[in-house]
Design brief:
With about 230 residues, the protein is α+β, with helices and mostly antiparallel strands. It contains nine helices and nine strands. It has one domain. Helix content is about 35%, strand content about 20%. The chain is globular and about 45 Å long. Pfam families: PTH2.
Length: about 230
């Protein structure tokens, strides 16, 4: 995903590259539901973006977030369980809990500078399932619509949901951001029918995530459309 702060692709790619790490807890006997994991990852990204450590002029994460936003907005989701999760929780970050999911988000790190306790965690092949039909989204909440024509692992989809939430955050003014944060960042992640996706994609005002193509899918693929009241 590209940043709104540098509009030149050459400048964006020449800048030092950072990544936002997220870790999802997947215990062998109690994996989270897929949709809940996607929604929790999206709320984790919003929670970090709105945290005073990332927004205050002298915040301890502010410069890292600015450097990250000045380049490509990369997010990588890794998975952990047991002792791995406990080590991941000991690192500076924020844990966000959903109905079945726990996701910890960390301040951005250099692309090749992951903390060792995160770097050793597995990133590929994270698969999760929903345990029954996913209900329609509640009325009045932002919805992150996943492209029904694109197949992604759960980890990749979590990162894309985080991108969609971030685009929605950028679109809001200060009052809208404050209201969303005060409400606890309610949102839904859903996969629409193909005809609904086509209609959403033809709506110019809605922000669209287009993947950079580093993993799983070709560059430029639209993955998420964010709609909000």
């Amino acid at each position: 995903m590209t940043s709104p702060f540098q509009h030149s692709a050459a400048e964006r790619d020449a800048a030092p590259q950072f990544v936002l790490p997220l870790v999802v807890r997947i215990e062998r006997d109690a994996p989270p539901a897929r949709t809940d994991a996607l929604e929790t990852a999206a709320r984790a990204v919003l929670t970090l973006l709105s945290d005073e450590r990332a927004t205050a002029e002298d915040g301890e994460w502010t410069q890292a977030v600015r450097d990250w936003e000045d380049a490509r907005i990369r997010k990588v989701v890794r998975r952990a369980r047991g002792a791995e999760w406990r080590r991941a929780e000991a690192l500076p970050g924020i844990t966000v809990t959903g109905r079945t999911a726990e996701v910890r988000v960390y301040p951005p790190v250099p692309l090749d500078g992951w903390p060792k306790d995160l770097a050793r965690l597995q990133v590929s092949g994270t698969e999760l399932d929903d345990r029954g039909p996913v209900p329609p989204p509640e009325a009045g909440v932002p919805v992150l619509w996943m492209n029904p024509e694109v197949t992604m692992s759960a980890g990749k989809a979590m990162a894309q949901a985080g991108h969609g939430a971030q685009l929605a955050w950028w679109e809001l003014g200060a009052p809208g951001r404050a209201a969303w944060r005060s409400a606890g960042f309610p949102l839904a992640v859903r996969t629409p029918a193909s005809r609904v996706w086509t209609r959403l994609a033809s709506t110019p005002a809605l922000p669209v995530v287009r993947d950079a193509g580093f993993t799983e899918i070709p560059p430029g693929t639209p993955t998420v459309i964010a709609s909000y009241p």
